[in-house]
Amino acid sequence: MKSILRIIIVLQLFTTPGFSQQVPAVEENIPFLVTFGKEGEKSWGDDDFSQTYFFVIPKFQVKPIYIRVFDAETSAEFDEKKGEYNTKTKFSVYGGKESFTCKDVRLKDPAGKYKSGNLLATKTFISSEVYDGEWYTFGPFNPTEGELVTEYGGYIFKVIAEGISGDDGNLYKYFLSSSPTENKAIEGGNAFTFEYTFRLSDSQKDVAHLYPYIEQNVYSVRVSNFDFDNDGAVNIVSMVKKGELSKASGDNVWENTTHLIVEKEKKTTLDVQFIKNKKVPIKNNNVTLYVTNQYGNLLPIYTVPIGGAPQRNSKIQFEQKKKTTPY
Ligand SMILES: [Ca+2]
Ligand SMILES: [Ca+2]
Ligand SMILES: [Ca+2]
Ligand SMILES: [Ca+2]
Asked: Residue 1 falls within a domain, yes or no?
């Protein structure tokens, strides 16, 4: 009985009610991840034609897991066409020793041994309508096939999406599932990336939320965003900050802003918000974001914010300060 109680408490600690394990999560207001074929134009928003995601499986998960990809191909619905569709995207799942802890994994560009670890599964998707608007399932994987990294909460699987040819944008989503045929969340599971290339919502009312985690040793962060096309503002909210603007990028350029981190913000999550402008509608906007600490090391950007999203926790103060904040 005692052990059952303990399990329940652990579960409650790890899960944030209301957050799904779709990547991007519904709560992020980000419709899709984006990876272009490597002959693509960087000015369309993807700076390096490669995206690496990490899936965290808590140690108490013993049953097999599945990593599902929605619309893994590039054609017809959801994708971004340039000329004819001719893009191939390779999805590869890695686990085992050094698949996460190899230092080259924590780079903003695909370089060195970023494909470290054991290749567990791979598939290349062409412009084929077979997988258009459908889920493709990788797995089953035994959780222990990942790399155990205790400070990140369990076994980690690495998924690399690589635009190996073509020039179109592949839009897709992931789901970390306990089922091969449907999306069933894994209790306490999470996902994160070190560099996030994504599609913004077309709706001018939507605000995208990205959740970098501030580790204990961080006293300043540098927020870098690429190709936001002057579509609005980049705003930082934390347990302490009620809104602090970061410079927003224009077409095909990076902008970087340094923000100081105070004691209360350590071991909490920042909410990096992309707030679209209300005047000119900009559609099909792809953007890239990464965040580094004072040593230039990348911070993990989580799907489910660790400890909860700060704006929810500071909502009361937020309401009171309405007149002085920009929204
Ligand atoms: Ca498609
Ligand atoms: Ca093309
Ligand atoms: Ca697609
Ligand atoms: Ca863009």
From this structure: no
